[in-house]
Design brief:
This protein has about 280 residues and is α/β, with parallel strands linked by helices. The protein has 2 domains: about 80 residues, Rossmann fold (3-Layer(aba) Sandwich), CATH 3.40.50; about 140 residues, Nitrogenase molybdenum iron protein domain (Rossmann fold, 3-Layer(aba) Sandwich). Helix 9 links the parallel strand 7 and strand 8. It is globular.
């Protein structure tokens, strides 16, 4: 299932979004009133909370979606199930399927979405987002601040350079300490307990790591998001006890993982956080 954009759809008025970050982007583009369905994880901005839910990202209720008679369904290759997308397309529904892995790809995705609505004046908002990205891409910050960004605690998981959040870190003055660490298969290989086996086609962006590995990479900063796992103060204490003594901060996971306008809007905030730690 390759990421693709939709042709032959112009100005759809009934939209179902299966991706929280896309729901946010659609609302910021002024299309909130055209949303007729969202997932239960689509919780921002608050104006869309009155839109009916159709399940989650991984367990969307296809029958409920079809009953809403959408002119367009917005989906993501990683977040949503292939079987659900194929059922929708087989029923004649137009699906806008994407898979941005960098902030720049997220911005291109926003532009592709906006192009479906030529009747709206969206260029000023898009130009503002492009200017913000260009400013961060051109910023002179020296060496990136070594940063560890876990996404799960038990098992302890993180992301390498192929993941969207890693690009957010790099653009904001951080350096992902596990940028070069691929997920190994099977699990015992990922934990260094046996040799890895070839696993063609498997996703290697999200390795499982040990606390010893984290300590060996000596992050100066550990960022604990509230999604997909909501890290707790007791989790923070585990990282604060590492021999490398990193600074530990709780952050809004949306700023790092919601591609599109949410991550673009958060770049200034993330850069300020990283610079504050760098300066201590």
């Amino acid at each position: 299932m390759a990421a693709r954009v939709v042709a032959r759809v112009t100005g759809p008025r009934r939209i179902v979004s299966l991706v929280p970050s896309d729901t946010y982007t659609l609302a910021r583009l002024g299309l909130g009133e055209r949303l007729v369905g969202r997932t239960e994880y689509c919780v921002a901005p608050r104006q869309i909370l009155g839109v009916p839910t159709i399940g989650g990202t991984k367990n969307a209720d296809v029958d409920a979606i079809l009953a809403l008679e959408p002119e367009l369904v917005v989906a993501n290759q990683e977040e949503n199930r292939r079987a659900d997308i194929e059922r929708l397309e087989a029923a004649g529904v137009k699906v806008f399927l994407s898979f941005p892995c960098t902030v720049a790809e997220g911005l291109a995705h926003v532009r592709a979405l906006a192009a479906l609505f030529p009747e709206l004046e969206l260029e000023p908002l898009l130009e503002e987002a492009e200017a913000r990205l260009a400013r961060h891409a051109a910023a002179e910050r020296g060496d990136g601040l070594p940063t560890f960004f876990p996404i799960w605690m038990d098992p302890l998981m993180t992301a390498n350079s192929g993941a969207f959040l890693s690009d957010v870190l790099e653009l904001s003055g951080g350096r992902n300490v596990f940028a070069d660490r691929a997920r190994r298969y099977p699990l015992r290989a990922d934990l260094g307990l046996r040799p890895a086996v070839s696993a063609p086609g498997r996703d290697t962006r999200y390795p499982r790591v040990t606390l010893d590995e984290v300590d060996a990479r000596r992050p100066r900063l550990v960022l604990l998001p509230d999604e997909p796992h909501e890290f707790s103060p007791s989790d923070a204490a585990v990282f604060e006890a590492l021999a490398c003594r990193p600074e530990v901060r709780f952050v809004d996971g949306k700023a790092f993982m919601w591609y599109g306008l949410r991550a673009l809007e958060a770049l200034d905030e993330v850069a300020a956080l990283i610079e504050a730690v760098r300066s201590t």
